[in-house]
Queue: 2 jobs
Job 1
Amino acid sequence: MAAELLRETFEIQGRNFDKAGEVSGEIKVILRDLGIDAVNLRRLVIVAYEGEMNVVMYAHRGTLTLILTDDDLNLEITDEGPGIPDIELALQEGYSTASDEMRELGFGFGMGLPNMKKNSDEFRIESEVGKGTSVFAKIRLNANA
Amino acid sequence: MPELKHGFKIDADKCNGRMSCMRACPTHAIRVKNGKARLIPELCIDCGSCLGVCTTGAIYATTISFAELDRYKFKVAVASPALFSQFGIKDTPAQVGLALLDLGFDAVWEYAIDIELIDRAITDCVKKWPGPFPLISDACPVVVRLVQVAYPSMVEHLIPIEAPREIAGRELKRKYSQELGLKPEEIAAIYITPCQAKTISILQPAEETKSYLDGAVGISQIYNDVLSRMRKNASFRETPKGLVSTAELLHWGPPEGEFPKLSREHYLPLTGLTDIMKVFNDIEKGKIRNIEFLECHACQGGCIGGNLTVENLYVARSKNLHLLANMPKPGFLFEKEVERRYAVEDFSLRASVKPRPIEGEALDLRERVTRKKRADELLRGLPLLNCGLCGAPTCKNHAEDVAASRADVGDCVFLSRDRIDLLRQIYKK
């Protein structure tokens, strides 16, 4: 396994729509300044943002950890929330459990998780109903350059 | 990559080191060391914020002088519509056009046609575009540079269509070289510009091609000359004849690059860098949906709010509305010329815009991570007051400069008392 170069963890507050997106914004600046190429940067920011929004919309709180190695970018998004009963169903495009309130805010089109998967080279979800969810996404640095 | 040029210069002799420019710069591209401002070229996006706040005039736009124009046999002015909104309510575009001729230009280009052509080209491009959306206008050079520097993952959103001033330059060279039997290089296409940023788009286009224009003259640079000619010369008050009798072809429609033809619900006009950056942050996250085209101008209020204009934005805007209300709609000739040119000309951008290489790109990822960690560590020892006395606009910038061996950590007054004495020396009256 490639050596870990950088690891940073950020807190995400559930239900705080005012601050939603700030963590992905910070990550973007870090990776841009590290000279990560435009294509991978774009993919990672989309994964981070959708992941962050899922925590904001559904969970009490969560963390997003960015891990950079020589070969890839990794995101681990872990939350304390309701969990996902049927992961396969949740990954289908258009499937959504968002409330009307969330939809009014422009979210909940059932594209979040599918979009994260689409923009990752490896993608995995672990969830326990009533406890929380962890999402792991990997973007390989050389695969899309 | 050739050396990066910019649309302004800093005169070290005039600079008194008061740091207004450093604090105003949105990309933190200015440092003030030893009482003198200097630029980090890779970070500068030519927005001109520094020009506006410099109290000593040390920062000046590198526009072209009239003496430089003498080497051309035929000089054509392409006037930004912003020019016509700078004078009195009774001063018509035709009179401004005559004053430009009197000033030494051999012709004033009918620029409204080029603006109309690009309006059409953009509308067509938006309709056919496969994605990614939204497309972003590229007529403002600052917006293009902002994307290259701060939003590299969004370069594909820049619309691949030339700016109207560029196709004006191309067509006027074609037309006059044919009509007058001159070589294209003997004809000067000079843009009368509301900002210094257009200068840099002529000197060094972001897409790394060669501009069709030969230089830019600032509106403020010729304002007094144009005004005095209009006031002194009685003949300017009469109905102008010849070229400028079709003054609507100099000025028609809203200020440069506003595209009323696009449907309002899928089109966002944005002005001002702060607002543009807010929207760009959202685009980057994939948050903006259903918007097809963003028209972005870095200056608040668009080009009539440019830093080389004279009249204040609001008065100029009102003047522009007045002009439009009192001008006949362009007639048959206008439509005919638009149709003719639209059929034969290609408006696509000649090369794609790429992200601008970041500083120290020669370093590999590991070295950059080491540098970042070093900067994070240094930052913990700094006061986070962003006082600027070290010569960097923020403590974070100072930490990064030190990590990049561009500054000495002791430049911070909190870390070294000698620094205060040194500053006292530099800034003593």
Job 2
Amino acid sequence: MTPPRSIDVADLPPFAVSSEAPLWWGQLFLTFVEATMFAILIAMYFYIRLSMDVWPPPGIQMPPEVLPAIALVLLIASCYGSYRASEAAKRDDRWGMIEGLALNLGLAIPAVVLRAFSWHDWNFKWTSTAYGSVTWGILFLHTLDLGADLAFTLVLLIIVALVRSGPRQRLGVHVDSIVWYFLVAIWIPLYVTVYWGPHLVGAPQ
Amino acid sequence: MTAATTPSIDLDRERASLERAWANGRGLLAWLSVTTHQAIGMRYIVTAFLFLLAGGVEALLMRLQLARPDNTLLTADKYNQIFTVHGSTMMFLFAVPMMEGMGVYLVPLMLGTRNVAFPRLNAFGYWMYVIGGLFLYWGLFTNTGPDVGWFAYTPLSGPQFSPGKRVDVWAQMITFTEISAMCVAAELAATILKMRAPGMSLNRIPLFCWGMLVQSFMVLFAMPAVMVASNIFLLTDRTIGTHFSNPAEGGDPLLYQHVFWFFGHPEVYIIFIPALGMVSAIVDTNTRRAIFGYPAMVLSLVATAFIGFGLWVHHMFATGLPQIGEAYFTAASMMIAIASGVQIFCWLATMWTGRIRWTAAMHFVAGFVFIFVLGGLTGVMLAAIPLDLQVHDTFFVVAHFHYVLIGGALFPLFGGFHHWFGKFTGRLIDERLGKLTFWVLFIGFNLTFFPMHILGLRGMTRRIYTYPSEMQWGGANALATAGALVILLGGILFLVNVFTSRRNGEMAGPNPWDSGTLEWATASPPQNFNFLLLPAVTGRYPLWTSFKERIAVTGLRNDRREVLVTTLMDAEPHHRYVLPRSSIWPFVTAVLITIGLIGSVFQFQWYYPGIALATIGFLGWFWPRAQEAEP
Amino acid sequence: MSAWGTPYQSAVNAAGPQSGRIETLFWVFTILLAIIFVIVIVVLLLTLTRRHRGIQQEPLEQTHIPSGATEHRLTRTVAAATIVTVVVLLGLLVASVGTGKAISGLGTARNGLAVEVIGNQWWWYVRYLNDDASRIVTTANEIHIPVGRPVMIRGTSHDVIHSFWVPNLNGKIDFIPSRVNAQWIEADYPGRFRGQCAEFCGIQHAHMALWVVAEPPDRFEAWMNHQLEPAAAPSDADSQQGQQVFLNHACIFCHTIAGTAALGSAGPDLTHFASRSTIAAGTLPNTKGNLAGWIADPQNIKPGNHMATVALDSADVQPLIDYLESLK
């Protein structure tokens, strides 16, 4: 027996490209997971600092900050590309999405390349003291996340450009943007910890 | 949106169409591709129950070994593997997945929708869990089982003192189960927040759903810590030479403990909070009244979650940390009892003014109150640092955590089994046998674990494979072992009840208990689409409103898997949402990721092909398909 | 209560001021919380068996919600119960912190004694600290203390985390590699108190016990002075042969016997081995028979422990045992 009164939802759209979509929330929750992980790593950095008298430990040479600083700026700038793509996704603007994603990748990929080059300047590995372990832990994990999202964004760009730009793809572009904002935003405290840590809480020999 | 008079609907055509759209198919490939929440929820429940039995066998072996002094049933090495696998099984392979399974099954029904928000993620999470569990047991059966305790403290678990693969197996099992838990947490939270029946504002959702929501958030913030501890800390120390716990190079074994217990303490609330939700569901149904103090109950759940993150150092009182910091943790550890206390008071108030129906499920609720309160009170004792320093790492603490976990989680869970068995299977579980099961488990449990309080006070430390007869612990240990055999009997009674009731039990019908919540508004067991027409609600107990005041949702398409997404606070209808049908990709992706994860236990380089394989899996999963093209 | 453990490894048979205060706190908590538990269970039973006399019983079948008056009364009751809970917990918090402070206050060095204890897999290294280097005593697995004097136990570990626990005297303290943790113990009366490692430390964690022997001050001084002497020289041909057996085998790589060429430190100091009451960290009573079994096959007694099985000619065994048991 059907209830005597009802609400008809046939006129509602069958998708939403906005923060009302469950996928947006699901992705947000996964960023909570990553954020917690990185917060713990930052806490570990400072905890390990407390058990050492000289920071950074003897023999460690802090690399020049030029490349990482440029990479940081490029990453922040790349968020604009992500933002443009996300707004285009909301308006169902296929070319707008392609432009935004291309801008995003065009700035993000060089940032990652610069980061890879800057690693050559570190004169220690994760096997030299706990300082090395936590510093490389932070670098590896953030880069892994960044690389994964770059790959995802690239695939998304290919799909939107060459295969289809339907509601699911548009939602994907919109949700991808919050992942990107998160990865860049979390990099800022990580950057401060890794590159400015020795200045902020260091102790010379 | 306001309700209008319902147009006439051809329900038979509606049903036939929904059945086609939501069919799971037959055959092995179809079975591996299932994405409906009832099937996946039931898989979680059955698998977790099997792990409960495995953990129980391990417990029995331990109890048989300890029944007499200087016993030789198990060697030291075997015993150490068994107690480690027992703890790891119960915590990672039984308790959390079981609660999640109950959530996955019941939450969409209670919210009035057709599936969870991410059906393929749901399937993927299950496969990761099963594979992780099997991997741990492969380890145990090949003498590669971890033997360092379920929390694997360094440096004992580090490369120097635990060479070989045993601890690596443990650490990677954690990776599998934590990925699984995080998938379920993200999807349940998204489902509860965004896919509720119209009108089901946040202050109208069932308390069980509040429990699952709070638990999901706890998982999101706690599980990363154990990932860091087991993978970044322990696994890298063991395989690629990092120094997180090596004091000679600036590391610290205590850092591991901090990171682990930052997860470990919330973990027990992750297990416990869904059980509290089950208690509410059983109590309101069987007292025929709304739970007293709904806002206080919700606040207690939330407070428990928040405070639960601030207690972890109470596992480390003996490590020599500064006293002033430790006093804060004593205060917090005691204060959390207030939140649990409020819940108990509210249930007692509900029962005091309700009309109690004495089902088997209510027996388990009464048992829960007895056992959990006793365990909670010994917890207050443990919060006091001077007392903790005496009984920490003794059988007193073993007694405490079994009282709170078995009392606080297992008894409500068994109550839930008896309460929802009719809904899950279509036939009611036998009430008399259920009540007998309760008494046997209750007596057996207390016989097993109460003596352990005294053993701990009398010096018996934990994790010892034997003890000398001069210590005179033999009598109490023998009593505890006898109790364990009684628990075994209770388990057997339960299994007998399950199997005979499935075949011969009385037909349940949609709502045998005259309950008020939406899971009882449909057939038992529910069809894959749950409800012919989704409901809209006007109160906390939709089935306790008279029929003429009920509202349905019309206009969703029935030729595809379509559900309704509603707004966060007030559950106003917002848009329709098309869910995927069956898909093999969650299973394939899980297998591909497994190759990398297990390979890297033996050779670290397997991580790289592992990442490549995972990528292939995700590509297959997300690649656009023609059937999704139309709006 | 003989089936429930002995009184010499027991937290509820306090023999010193620290453990005494803890035991008092324990009884305060236990009695108060037991009363609370009984109250909760009585309320539960009443709830389950009452027949609703007095409370307005609305037709719950229709509304499922009692009257406002009922809910109001319940609110007051639950609020009152909550307030009582908070007050009780605050009281217990004060008692706990107070006890902790009182115990810390006991740890002043008035006439105190300092003993360094180091956890190893699976035995306890013991060294009595002294500013005068000639008065440092090294032993293992058995700690003698003078009655009525505070003793500071300073501990660390050479390998994994262990935990030092002598329940009759105080709570436990973890011994963590690269850290030093300390606690004070004190015996109010003479006695023998057993302790056990309380942090899982590997395969033979179950067999890592120790004895604390509290003696009147003069007896303690005598013991101390005796321990300071080098090992007893072998007094007869049998023991002399035994000493030769010891010095010619791998024993010297791990064990020290002061006054001889044996200077190993991987295992317990054996200088006054025969003055100790147990072998293998409290695993067996120290008798000739047990010692013979231990040396012949340590892996049989304590599988997985780090002592090598040293092959001996059968003719060498008895002299070796006799020699070791002469090291009083």
